[in-house]
Amino acid sequence: MREIKQIKDQIEQNRQHLRRLVERHGMHDDKVLKQSMLLDELINKYTRLIEKY
């Protein structure tokens, strides 16, 4: 369960970072795309983890 909390925290931090990148660089910047992909990976990891419980 601790791992789930850690991933949720990481997701929230990465979501905030993505929002800041979009504000600074716009939706089509490579930095935004990379951050979005990282966030997707974390969300997928979280989903796989909670499916185990």
From TrEMBL:
Domain of life: Bacteria
Signal sequence coordinates: none
SUPFAM superfamilies: BAS1536-like
InterPro entries for the chain: HLH_DNA-bd_sf, Spo0E-like, Spo0E-like_sf
Name listed for the protein in its UniProt record: Aspartyl-phosphate phosphatase Spo0E family protein
Organism annotation: Paenibacillus taichungensis
